[in-house]
């Protein structure tokens, strides 16, 4: 092998003073011969110089190993560091760690269990190797396994008492970043171990925007939406610039919870940071404002988006539909198609919902036919639900047979969904067919399906309040129920009569009226009367659909007290509904 003259660093211009220790002499000479960021051929040339001077001894070889950069995955490249490691006079942890650092993936994983010497820092070198591979190939299936292996290595480090040891970040420029620990975070999040990921995150001495966005995304993935928003706020308070991933994830959490003020806070972060309006970000903002009851703000964002994807169009169409702007939603759909976009199943949920809320029966039937015949989209549970609302509100107008048919079809399409059984039972209850109600309840029991506990959620001055049916746990419960009695008295004087068809038990009317007045929506409205100033809209989010009586109750509250009420239900469904009650509705 021919070697040219190695490039000399400034230190090489001074003649080294050799000592009795060959390893020390080798370190001194390498410092003079090698540039600040050597590549493989620099190290090979330096090795040749050591050999000529008689300094290439076994105890000096680990110094050459430490000087090597990370190498590509070729047999020629990784054979050299392996030969250095084998020829060393003894297998030190120093040599083992640098071997892990320079070898290409997946060699470090294969060699790690067989290394004769390791120390607490070896875990960090291995994780650094995994992180480099993930950066180069983040989409490959093996990357997912690598992330999980990274998490496994971290668990081993915990057992060894080295989980928080960041010595390597201080000593080695090649891994002086948080990519290693971000790899561990991602591994735990993808494995569904968010609590463990949070422990790692809290123990990290160094964090970047990826660290924060990973934790925010992990909480959203696990449904801990309020915690996710709290982490996002903490990130902003600590001065970390939020990346688009964290922003979009936080907007999704606010949208799912229906918390407008939280969503506005995230939007303000976007404005202050000067984040460009990408398609993902714009669509997330449209979705958030639509689901939080501010369709006007959603339309403003939609109109200024430089480019729009199908998700943005779907969010705007569904937002207009759920706020009772059915004609606008249908017109936007026609514009969507005319611009060459292909509608999806969600698009037609929005269109059918628009027809349902505007009474466009013929148009709804035509769009359902168009969906199947032109676009080849099969009808799903959400489409049948919209058609049920469109063709007849069965419970109110007495079309029991049609309601039973649709209710059974919904149960057939989605047996685990408790709401379909409740719908069918309520239709039977409206017709006073109590034996059939009991059969539906028995069917639910036999299939292991239970009715989800209903709640109503509201946000006041950045604080989220959640009420259950008959809730007495709130600190202001006495004031709330006193206010509820006042509201009930005023509504009764105005002629309000409770709709008892939503009570699915064969009990007396007096007991039914009492049960209705304990609905979580009633309690939430009463509390908003106490804490929300007159003239501001009352915003409520429900996890279940609005029952017939709560619908009438909200209408009467608006009529008697002049308060605008916006209720959003079914927050986790693509066809989530929003009901706006104002004077004249």
From TrEMBL:
GO molecular function, one term: zinc ion binding
Presence of keyword Cytoplasm: no
Single biological process term from Gene Ontology: RNA modification
PPR repeat intervals: 177-207, 208-242, 309-343
Pfam families for the chain: DYW_deaminase (PF14432), E_motif (PF20431), PPR (PF01535), PPR_2 (PF13041)
Boundaries of every DYW domain copy: 495-570
Organism: Sorghum bicolor (Sorghum)
Membrane spanning stretches: none
NCBIfam families: PPR (TIGR00756)
Record's keyword terms, sorted: Repeat, Transit peptide
Protein's UniProt name: DYW domain-containing protein
């Amino acid at each position: 092998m021919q070697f040219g003259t190695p490039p000399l660093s400034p230190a090489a211009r001074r003649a080294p003073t050799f000592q009795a220790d060959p390893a020390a002499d080798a370190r001194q000479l390498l410092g003079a011969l090698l540039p600040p960021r050597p590549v493989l051929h620099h190290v090979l040339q330096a090795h040749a110089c050591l050999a000529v001077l008689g300094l290439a001894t076994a105890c000096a070889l680990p110094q050459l190993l430490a000087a090597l950069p990370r190498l590509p995955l070729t047999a020629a490249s990784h054979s050299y560091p392996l030969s250095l490691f084998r020829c060393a006079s003894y297998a030190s942890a120093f040599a083992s760690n640098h071997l892990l650092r320079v070898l290409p993936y997946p060699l470090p994983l294969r060699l790690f269990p067989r290394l004769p010497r390791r120390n607490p820092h070896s875990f960090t070198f291995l994780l650094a190797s995994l992180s480099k591979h993930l950066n180069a190939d983040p989409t490959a299936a093996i990357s997912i396994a690598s992330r999980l292996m990274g998490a496994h290595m971290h668990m081993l480090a915990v057992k060894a008492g080295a989980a928080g040891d960041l010595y390597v970040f201080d000593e080695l420029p090649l891994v002086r970043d948080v990519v290693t620990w971000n790899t561990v975070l991602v591994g735990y999040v993808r494995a569904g171990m968010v609590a463990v990921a949070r422990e790692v995150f809290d123990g990290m001495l160094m964090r970047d925007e990826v660290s924060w966005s990973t934790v925010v995304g992990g909480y959203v993935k696990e449904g801990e939406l309020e915690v996710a928003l709290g982490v996002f706020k903490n990130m902003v308070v600590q001065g970390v610039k939020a990346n688009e991933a964290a922003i979009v994830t936080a907007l999704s959490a606010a949208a799912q919870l229906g918390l407008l003020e939280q969503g506005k806070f995230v939007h303000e972060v976007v404005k202050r940071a000067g984040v460009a309006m990408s398609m993902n970000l714009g669509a997330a903002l449209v979705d958030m404002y639509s689901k939080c009851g501010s369709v006007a703000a959603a339309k403003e964002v939609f109109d200024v988006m430089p480019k729009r994807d199908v998700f943005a169009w779907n969010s705007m169409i569904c937002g207009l539909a759920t706020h009772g702007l059915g004609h606008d939603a249908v017109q936007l759909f026609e514009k969507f198609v005319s611009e060459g976009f292909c509608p999806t199943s969600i698009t037609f949920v929005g269109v059918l919902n628009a027809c349902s809320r505007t009474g466009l029966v013929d148009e709804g039937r035509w769009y359902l036919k168009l969906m199947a015949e032109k676009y080849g989209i099969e009808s799903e549970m959400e489409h049948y639900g919209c058609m049920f609302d469109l063709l007849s509100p069965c419970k109110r107008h007495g079309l029991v047979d049609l309601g039973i048919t649709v209710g059974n079809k919904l149960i057939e399409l989605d047996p685990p969904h408790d709401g379909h059984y409740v719908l069918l039972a309520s239709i039977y209850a409206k017709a006073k067919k109590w034996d059939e109600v009991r059969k539906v309840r028995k069917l639910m029991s036999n299939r292991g399906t239970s009715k989800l506990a209903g709640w109503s959620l509201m946000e006041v001055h950045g604080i989220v309040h959640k009420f259950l049916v008959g809730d007495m746990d709130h600190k202001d419960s006495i004031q709330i129920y006193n206010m509820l009695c006042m509201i009930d008295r005023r509504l009764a004087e105005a002629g309000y009569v409770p709709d008892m068809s939503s009570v699915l038990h064969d009990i007396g009317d007096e007991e039914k009226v009492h049960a209705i007045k304990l609905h979580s929506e009633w309690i939430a409205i009463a509390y908003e009367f106490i804490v929300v100033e007159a003239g501001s809209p009352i915003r409520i989010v429900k996890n279940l659909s609005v029952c017939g009586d709560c619908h009438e109750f909200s209408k009467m509250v608006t009529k008697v007290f002049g308060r605008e009420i916006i209720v959003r239900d079914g927050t986790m469904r693509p066809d989530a509904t929003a009901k706006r009650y104002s004077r004249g509705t």
